Each structure stands twice: as structure tokens, then as C-alpha cells.
Automatic annotation (TrEMBL), chain A:
GO process terms (BP): transmembrane transport
Membrane topology of this protein: Multi-pass membrane protein
One Pfam family in the UniProt entry: OppC_N
GO terms under cellular component: plasma membrane
UniProt-annotated location(s): Cell membrane
Keywords: Cell membrane, Membrane, Transmembrane, Transmembrane helix, Transport
ABC transmembrane type-1 domain mapped to chain residues: 110-307
UniProt record similarity statement: Belongs to the binding-protein-dependent transport system permease family.
Superkingdom in the source lineage: Bacteria
Native source species: Rhizocola hellebori
Stated name of the protein: ABC transporter permease
SUPFAM superfamilies according to UniProt: MetI-like
Transmembrane residue ranges: 42-65, 114-141, 153-176, 182-199, 230-251, 289-310
TrEMBL record, chain B:
Listed GO CC annotations: plasma membrane
Alphabetically ordered keywords of this record: ATP-binding, Cell membrane, Membrane, Nucleotide-binding, Transport
A biological-process GO annotation: peptide transport
Domain ABC transporter span(s) in chain numbering: 4-256
GO molecular function (one): ATP binding
Cellular localization per UniProt: Cell membrane
Top-level taxon of origin: Bacteria
Membrane topology term: Peripheral membrane protein
Similarity comment text for this entry: Belongs to the ABC transporter superfamily.
Cross-referenced InterPro entries: AAA+_ATPase (IPR003593), ABC_Ni/Peptide_Import (IPR050388), ABC_transporter-like_ATP-bd (IPR003439), ABC_transporter-like_CS (IPR017871), Oligopep_ABC_C (IPR013563), P-loop_NTPase (IPR027417)
Protein name per its UniProtKB record: Dipeptide/oligopeptide/nickel ABC transporter ATP-binding protein
TrEMBL record, chain C:
InterPro entries for this protein: BPD_transp_1_N, MetI-like, MetI-like_sf
Sequence similarity: Belongs to the binding-protein-dependent transport system permease family.
A single Gene Ontology CC term: plasma membrane
GO biological process: transmembrane transport
Membrane topology: Multi-pass membrane protein
Protein name in the entry: Peptide ABC transporter permease
Compartments reported by the entry: Cell membrane
Organism: Rhizocola hellebori
TM annotation in the entry: 9-27, 101-121, 133-155, 197-217, 255-276, 305-327
SUPFAM superfamilies named in the record: MetI-like
Alphabetically ordered keywords of this record: Cell membrane, Membrane, Transmembrane, Transmembrane helix, Transport
Main location: membrane
């Protein structure tokens, strides 16, 4: 073989090496890759933009609204004569049935809705992960006693799952008496079984994964494996679920309002309560229902779009 | 006269946001009636894509197939409409796949999966179809065929499943059988039995067969003619006798050299080159095998080598036997 | 198969037992205690004391639970505070309406959802696919009671195509046999009554179907997409089978497996949805009854409702498990 040919081969080999390095960069960490794919997904962008606006309005909006959301008597309203003033230069969304500024109520309502959604989801997430994590760890690493602990916990969860979400929430509100806190607890409670099952399921799947088997065979302690290997890798599906749960929490809170179990203070601007109030006047002032309804739908859509996109981005089956 | 004449078959995969990949790059070969030919190469060389293209089974989007594949001096398999192809598949041309478990529908009894071919192409129904299916299972060597007809794929062993798939393929006595790595997923002992069965069946029916495999050992006892593929192109084509007596292309040589050493990890030395840069257009800068070739010359990477030689042709500028 | 069903029925016992404990504790922990649940919130202290004594509320909890369970097993769910009649009777009167409504909704959801999901998968990335995915996303994000009002306002109030409320027009004097109005009309050959009952079912059925329809479309689509990539579909193609045969025997049958499971899980949501939908359309079923009970703090009715729903949910999922094993032979073996 000639010298030149050797050089050419060396060049080719280097090309191959470069290609290999390139491939490795493609296989960066799970999170970075997922994030990169999220950015390329139009649904994720739309969802993120919706949520960005929603959160911004929720945080900053209440300081900028033209009227107090609880100030009544801003104009002439007569339900007996079907008079509720519509949008004008002064009142962008018109007045509501108590002559309050609808626009201000919508803006302030965003904060309330966000608060209910986030607190409720956090509640469900915390207790769901507590139960699910315990069950998963017990099942995966605890031998016979662990299995029975897991069994007891899961039967409890199954029982909760056998009750439709809204009814579970209703019974909790009945138990604790209606208040804002109760609504958040009730809506959050409903999502406990979902989080518990999910975390347990993915922990068990992870426990059987090869790297855990490898860690075990290297003599790494059981608690250390659970904390440093299994848990972090099980977090992704739980995060996705939390995003999706935010959407259902907002819708469920609205359902509770509709059944008369929402926040009992009628002055508070909250989309679910506003929608319920407006539906009683749907036939002559449908716009009052549309504002909060569209608010709820768009927000829920934002969370759902982002959640679904995250699920896709993290799904190893779809990764390619 | 050839039963199947494949000319300049090219399959390009591509999409809106992906660079085009030439999976099959101008492959030509012919299959005469009753003849068994082999397409040999490692995974990614385009041999499975070739067979799927001939069957019209490539996904409808994301690829472009050009060239000609004339079946029985009539239809061009690559350009004819799906309806004609549907009528031919299973009756004139049948195919056997690599993984018998995933290739059988898990929720449909074996019997139904056999009789549905008979109903489709031979108009057999009811008891007649059942009897024929039983005879077919018996023919491919499945014991107690009457009972097996009612069973589901998960109740059969791996070898049994492959036999069932073969029964479906030969149900209508097709004139061409394409076997895509039919033994890869099976135990070594079963492999030989399945190959023996295929050999017997095509011999009895006078069926021509294209055997697709990565294993030269499989084609050695079976094929009349062998095409060796590398990176989408035929790199050597010869009769079995000639190829085994005188492997000319370094790649073929490498494949042959790795056969008898069962103790070593096969293909270890022939590991595909990682990366994607050269995979897109492997033959543009010269011989695609050059980076892995032990007989590489400067001229190898100066341009794509042509297929040279007579009946025993090869695509190499420094073939074995050319040493001085 | 019998053994499988019996075993599954036995497995239900602990779940239902646990549920009865939860309900018992719930009733016990209600603000004001169980006597409030029986007497209502405006009871006098004297009657409270009397009922506490007569109910043995000062007995140990476990004894009380035993009594509670015995009553439940006899089908005694207590008396409604509002109507002063046994809760079970009140529910049985209203159950047929809800069954008619949920069955209608399920027929709409399955009948539209599976073909739509299949088409969306088959024509992936076309306008049809995008439209069905987008519409199903929007449907799950819409509060169902708002959707009900919207549908009612449009098709009943404005266009006048359908009645706005109830299960039967008051001008129709129909004979009642089973309480299932459609069935009654057919059995007594009072066709106008049957048609009118169906007419009343359309809008609430559509409203209630929205969420399950959306979920079934998306589930079917995902499942079909996965099955279409399976090797056995390629085998079926290689056999030259007709498209219809491949779709029916090889694609849909396998794709239905996850869909069937989801349909079982949807019943719970369907019954919650019935509470809201029946309220919107003043449809006399157990959902509307429960909503009224919630409004009136009629605790025995609420408890009865939860128990009935849980039993229905559990039974439906049993049916789902059985049909699953009918579709998939691999489950049967175990």
C-alpha cells in the first residue's frame, strides 16, 4: 500500500471518528434532548405561550386593572328588564349582573384560577408521590414485607380510583365544608391516585432496568439506589402528569362551582364561579359566560398542549 | 428466460427535513424459474429494502423507488398499481419474514391466518379451506395439525411459528418466494431444519426463491446464484460454486473468513463504521468498503469502482487473485 | 372462563369492603356527626340526643360499623332527608334515565370515536388528522356544563330542533313498564313516545359523549398507528389480503385492546359528567338527583350515590376485563 493511500485512509478514519463524536452529541442527556425537541414542537410553543400570558396576567394583572373586581354599581343593570351593559370604551368586556367591571374580574380571576390549579396540583403531587414512592420503593427493594406494604397501599389507591373524580371532590367538600381551601384540597385529592400509580409504576419499571441491576451487583446500597438512580428517572412522567393535572384541576374546580360547592364568597372573582353565575343568565347575556369559559378552555388547552408535548419529548419510543 | 428481472433498482429514503439516504443504489439481478438466488450482506446493506420494494410493501410515504422489476415478462412490480400487486402477493409472489412471533397476529388463531390466504386467492371457504390448511401444516412438518389450527401463535414454539408462516407463504404455490432472514430469530438446531424444509418445498413445487441473509453459511447449501450487497450496491455476483471457490471482493472474502470460527464473535472485525456522514452517499467518494478494507489502495477512494468481470462479476479495483 | 369471572368477583370484595369503611367514616366525620346526616342541620338538640341514643352512636365504632354494614347488605341505604323515603327506592326510580343517557353517550362516543380515530391514523398528518386531534383536545378542555348550555342554546332554544329539558314531552301520555322510556315505548308499541324519548336523549347524550368521544378518538388513533407498524400487518399485506380484511381482522382487532381498557376507565368520568349534564338538561336521572342532594346537603342520598356509582364502576370494569380476555387469547391462558 502506498503512502498516499494510508493518508487517505487516515482521513477517512478521522471522518468516521468525527461522525461518531457527532452521534454522541446527539445522545446528550435525556433532559437536554427532551428540551431541544420541545422547542421544535409547535404544540409545545403554543402551549408555553398561552401559559406564559396566563401566568403574567395572573401575577401582574391585578395591579393594572382599571376597576376593583368587587366594586359594584358601575352602571345601570336590571335583570328583570334584561339590561346588562355590553362592552364599551370604558368597560372593555362590559359589566356583569352586579354592575361590576367584567374585564377587571377576568384579569383578577386569572390569578385565583391559577392559585387553585397550582395549589391543588401541588397537594395531589405531594401526597400521590409520597404514597406511590413508598409503594414503589417497598415493591422494588423491600422483599416480602415490602410487597405486602405495596399491596395494602395500592388497594387503597384502587379504592379511590373506583370513585369518579368529581364525586370524590364533592364528598370531601361535604366533609370539610365549602371554602377556598376545601376546594383546593378536594381537587388535589382527586389526583392523588393518578400520581401514586404513575410514580410506583415507573419506579418498578426503573428498578428492573439494567443500570439498577448493575448498581446492585456493584454493591451500592438499596437506599442509595432508590434515591440516586430510581427516583430521578421516574420523575419525568410525574412532571408530565402534573402539567396535565393542572388542566383538569381548573376544569374540576369549575365543576364544583357549578354544583354550588365552590368558594362560598360570591364577591371573589374566580372563573368557575363567574361561569356558573353567568349560565343562569345565558339566554340574554351569553357573553358573560363566554369570557370565563374561553378563559378556562384556553388555559386548560395550554397546560394540555404543553403536557402532551412533554410526554412526546420524553417518550423513548418516539425518540429518533 | 427470467422469471424476475430486476434492473437498476434504487430506493431513496427522504423527507422534508431529512437528507436523502440511498438505501438501495442501482441493484440489478435476475431470478430464473425454479432457481434459488441469495442476497447476502450485513444489516443496512439494503437487502431487506430490496425485497420490500419488490413486494410493494415499503411505506407509502418518505421513499422513492426507481428502476424496473419485470415479473414473468409482464408486470413491472415497481410501477404497477396496488390492486394488481394485491392480487399477485400471496399467489404469485410470497414472502417469509425474519421474526415469526411478531409476524403472526397474536389474537388470531393459526388456522384463520392460513385459511384467509386460501379464501383470498383460491376461493376456498369453510370445511374445504380447513382441510387444505390442515394439509398445509402437515406439509411444513407441524405435528397434530388439526389441533394446531385452533391455537394461537403464543402457544407455538419458535420453529413451529416459522413453519406456520411458511405454510401461509406456500399455500397458493407461488412462483417466487422471498425469504427475508427466515432463520435468524431461531435456535441453531432449528435453523437447519427450516432451511431443509424450504429447500424441499421449492424443489417439489418448482418455486423460485430469493434467500436474503447475512450468513454465507445459509446460502452455501441452498442457492444457485449469489449476490453480495454492500451499502446498497451489488459488490460481487457469481454462481455458488464460483463464489465459494474464488471469492474475489475483499468484503466477500471477509464474510467467508468469518464463517467457520463459531467461537469468535461474528462480524466483530466487520463492525459497521459509526456515524452518518458517509452513510448518506456512501459511494460518491469512492468504494464504500474502503475504510474497512485491508486491501485498500489509493485508487479505491478516487471514484466509485464499476462492476467488472464476466459471469463472475465484482466491484473492486484490487480484488483477491489480482496480486502480483 | 367461569373460573376467571368468579375469581374476579371475589377480588372485588376487599375493594367494596374498604369503600364501605371509607363511607362509614365519611358519614361519621361529617360536620355535626351522623345525626346531622339523618336529621339535617336544623335539628333540635333534643332530637339529636334522641337519635344518638336510638342509633347507638355511643357504642364503639366497630360495633357501629358492623350495624352499618349489615344495613348496607340488606340494601338499606337509609332515608332521604328531603323526601323522607328510602334512598334505594329513590335511586331505582331514577336509574333507568341515567342508564339510557349514559348508554346513548357511549354509543355516540364509540360509534364515532373508533372510525374517526382509525381514519385519523390512516391519514396521518392530513387535515382530517389535525382536525380530529385538535377537536378532541378542545373537547377535554371544555367544562362539560358549559358545553351543555352551548348545545342547548344553539340546537334547542335557537334552532328549536330538540326539546330543551326532561325525558319526555308532558303532552305525551305514555304507559310506563320498565322506566326505560325508549324501551317502554317500543314494548307497548307507542312509537310516538319512544321517538319522543329518543329525541330528548340526543342533546344530553351528545354533551355527555364529548369527553369520552375525544379520549376514544385519540386512543384509537395512537393505538392504530402503533399496530399499523407491526410486523403482522406487513405479513397480512404480503399475503395479498384485501384492505378491508386487513383493517377488520388484523388492525382494528389488535388496536381495540387498549381502547377497551380506556372505555372501562371512562365510566367513572361518564357518571360524574351525568351529574352535570342531567342538571343542565333537567333530565330526571340519578345524576340530577345527586346534584339536588348536594345542594340540599342530603347526606344519605349523597352516600348512596357514591356507593352505587362505585359498584357500577367496578362492575363495568369487570365486564371490560372479560371482554378483554375475549379479544386477546394471551390473557385467557393465565
Amino acid at each position: 500500500m502506498t503512502q498516499l493511500a494510508r493518508k487517505k485512509i487516515a482521513k477517512l478514519e478521522r471522518l468516521a471518528e468525527l461522525a461518531a463524536v457527532h452521534a454522541n452529541e446527539g445522545g446528550e442527556s435525556l433532559w437536554r434532548e427532551a428540551f431541544r425537541r420541545l422547542r421544535h414542537n409547535p404544540a409545545a410553543i403554543v402551549g408555553a405561550v398561552i401559559l406564559g400570558i396566563f401566568v403574567l396576567v395572573g401575577f401582574v394583572g391585578p395591579f393594572l386593572v382599571p376597576f376593583s373586581p368587587t366594586q359594584t354599581g358601575l352602571g345601570f343593570v336590571s335583570e328583570a328588564q334584561n339590561i346588562i351593559p355590553g362592552p364599551s370604551a370604558q368597560h372593555w368586556f362590559g359589566l356583569d349582573h352586579q354592575a361590576r367591571d367584567e374585564f377587571s374580574r377576568m384579569v383578577v380571576g386569572a390569578r385565583q384560577t391559577l392559585l387553585v390549579g397550582v395549589v391543588a396540583t401541588a397537594f395531589g403531587l405531594f401526597f400521590g408521590c409520597l404514597i406511590g414512592g413508598l409503594a414503589g420503593a417497598a415493591y422494588g427493594l423491600g422483599g416480602k414485607r415490602g410487597r405486602s406494604l405495596d399491596n395494602v397501599l395500592m388497594r387503597f389507591i384502587d379504592m379511590l380510583l373506583a370513585m369518579p373524580g368529581l364525586l370524590l371532590a364533592v364528598s370531601i367538600v361535604a366533609l370539610l365544608g365549602p371554602s377556598l381551601t376545601t376546594v383546593m384540597i378536594a381537587v388535589g385529592f382527586v389526583s392523588i391516585p393518578t400520581f401514586a400509580r404513575l410514580l410506583r409504576g415507573s419506579m418498578i419499571a426503573q428498578a428492573n432496568a439494567e443500570y439498577v441491576v448493575a448498581a446492585t451487583s456493584l454493591g451500592v446500597g438499596r437506599r442509595k439506589i432508590a434515591l440516586s438512580h430510581i427516583l430521578p428517572n421516574s420523575v419525568a412522567p410525574v412532571l408530565v402528569q402534573a402539567t396535565l393535572t393542572l388542566a383538569t384541576a381548573i376544569i374540576e374546580a369549575a365543576g364544583l362551582s357549578f354544583l354550588g360547592l365552590g368558594n362560598p364568597d360570591p364577591a371573589t372573582a374566580e372563573w368557575g364561579a363567574m361561569l356558573t353565575d353567568a349560565l343562569a343568565r345565558f339566554e340574554f347575556a351569553p357573553r358573560l359566560a363566554f369570557y370565563p369559559a374561553v378563559g378556562i378552555i384556553i388555559t386548560a388547552l395550554g397546560f394540555t398542549l404543553l403536557g402532551e408535548a412533554m410526554r412526546e419529548a420524553l417518550d423513548p419510543k418516539l425518540r429518533k | 428466460m427470467a422469471l424476475l428481472n430486476v434492473e437498476d433498482l434504487t430506493v431513496v429514503f427522504g423527507g422534508k427535513d431529512r437528507a436523502d439516504v440511498r438505501a438501495v443504489d442501482g441493484v440489478s439481478f435476475e431470478v430464473r424459474a425454479g432457481e434459488v438466488i441469495g442476497l447476502v450482506g450485513e444489516s443496512g446493506c439494503g437487502k431487506s429494502v430490496t425485497s420490500l420494494a419488490l413486494m410493494g410493501l415499503l411505506p407509502p410515504k418518505g421513499n422513492k423507488v426507481t428502476g424496473k422489476a419485470i415479473f414473468d415478462d409482464g408486470v413491472n412490480l415497481l410501477s404497477t398499481d396496488q390492486r394488481t400487486l394485491r392480487d399477485m402477493r400471496g399467489r404469485e409472489i410470497a414472502m417469509i419474514f425474519q421474526d415469526p412471533l411478531s409476524s403472526l397476529n397474536p389474537v388470531v388463531p393459526i388456522g384463520v391466518q392460513v385459511t384467509e390466504v386460501l379464501a383470498r386467492h383460491r376461493g376456498m371457504t369453510g370445511e374445504r379451506a380447513r382441510k387444505e390448511a390442515e394439509a398445509l401444516l402437515d406439509r411444513v412438518g407441524i405435528p397434530d395439525p388439526r389441533r394446531r389450527l385452533k391455537e394461537y401463535p403464543h402457544q407455538l414454539s419458535g420453529g413451529m411459528r416459522q413453519r406456520a408462516l411458511i405454510a401461509m407463504a406456500v399455500a397458493c404455490r407461488p412462483r417466487l418466494l422471498i425469504a427475508d432472514e427466515p432463520t435468524t430469530a431461531l435456535d441453531v438446531t432449528i435453523q437447519a431444519q427450516i432451511l431443509e424444509l424450504l429447500k424441499e418445498l421449492v424443489h417439489q413445487d418448482g418455486t423460485a426463491m430469493i434467500m436474503i441473509t447475512h450468513d454465507l453459511g445459509v446460502v452455501a447449501g441452498l442457492c444457485d446464484w449469489i449476490n453480495v450487497l454492500y451499502a446498497g450496491r451489488v459488490v460481487e455476483t457469481a454462481s455458488r460454486h464460483s463464489l465459494f471457490a474464488q471469492p474475489t471482493h475483499p468484503y466477500t472474502h471477509g464474510l467467508l473468513a468469518s464463517i467457520p470460527r463459531l467461537d469468535s464473535v461474528r462480524g466483530d472485525r466487520l463492525n459497521p463504521i459509526p456515524g452518518s456522514v458517509r452513510d448518506l452517499l456512501p459511494w460518491v467518494e469512492g468504494c464504500a468498503f474502503a475504510p474497512r478494507c485491508e486491501r485498500v489502495l489509493e485508487s479505491c477512494v478516487e471514484g466509485p469502482p464499476a462492476l467488472v468481470g464476466g459471469a463472475h462479476a465484482y466491484r473492486c479495483v484490487n480484488p483477491f487473485g489480482a496480486d502480483s | 372462563m367461569m373460573r376467571f369471572i368468579v375469581r374476579r368477583l371475589l377480588q372485588l370484595i376487599p375493594t367494596l369492603l374498604g369503600l364501605s369503611i371509607l363511607l362509614f367514616l365519611w358519614l361519621h366525620r361529617l360536620p355535626g356527626g351522623p345525626e346531622t346526616a339523618i336529621l339535617g342541620e336544623r335539628a333540635t338538640p333534643a332530637s339529636r340526643a334522641a337519635i344518638r341514643k336510638s342509633m347507638g352512636l355511643d357504642d364503639p365504632l366497630i360495633v357501629q360499623y358492623g350495624r352499618f354494614l349489615k344495613q348496607l347488605l340488606r340494601g338499606d341505604l337509609g332515608n332521604s332527608l328531603n323526601e323522607k323515603r328510602p334512598v334505594l327506592d329513590l335511586f331505582l326510580e331514577r336509574f333507568p334515565g341515567t342508564i339510557e343517557l349514559t348508554v346513548t353517550a357511549m354509543i355516540i362516543a364509540i360509534g364515532l370515536g373508533i372510525p374517526l380515530g382509525y381514519l385519523a391514523a390512516k391519514r396521518r398528518a392530513t387535515w382530517l388528522d389535525h382536525l380530529s386531534v385538535g377537536a378532541s383536545l378542545a373537547a377535554v378542555c371544555t367544562p362539560i356544563f358549559f358545553l351543555g348550555y352551548l348545545i342547548k342554546a344553539l340546537f334547542a332554544v335557537n334552532l328549536g330542533w330538540f326539546p330543551t329539558f326532561g325525558r319526555q314531552d308532558t303532552t305525551i301520555d305514555a304507559t310506563r313498564v320498565t322506566g326505560f322510556y325508549v324501551l317502554d315505548g317500543i314494548m307497548t308499541q307507542e312509537w310516538d313516545a319512544a321517538l319522543d324519548a329518543m329525541h330528548h336523549l340526543v342533546l344530553p347524550g351528545l354533551t355527555l359523549a364529548s369527553v369520552p368521544l375525544a379520549i376514544i378518538v385519540r386512543m384509537t388513533r395512537a393505538s392504530v398507528l402503533e399496530v399499523l407498524g407491526e410486523d403482522y400487518v406487513r405479513t397480512a399485506e404480503a399475503k395479498g389480503l384485501t384492505e378491508r380484511r386487513i383493517r377488520g381482522r388484523h388492525v382494528l382487532r389488535n388496536a381495540m385492546l387498549p381502547v377497551v381498557t380506556v372505555i372501562g376507565l371512562l365510566t367513572g368520568g361518564l357518571l360524574s359528567g351525568a351529574v352535570l349534564t342531567e342538571t343542565v338538561f333537567a333530565f330526571t336521572g340519578i345524576g340530577q338527583f345527586a346534584a339536588q342532594a348536594i345542594d340540599n346537603r342530603d347526606y344519605p342520598v349523597m352516600m348512596g350515590f357514591i356507593l352505587i356509582i362505585a359498584v357500577v364502576y367496578v362492575l363495568v370494569n369487570l365486564i371490560v376485563d372479560i371482554s378483554y380476555s375475549l379479544i386477546d387469547p394471551r390473557v385467557r391462558v393465565r
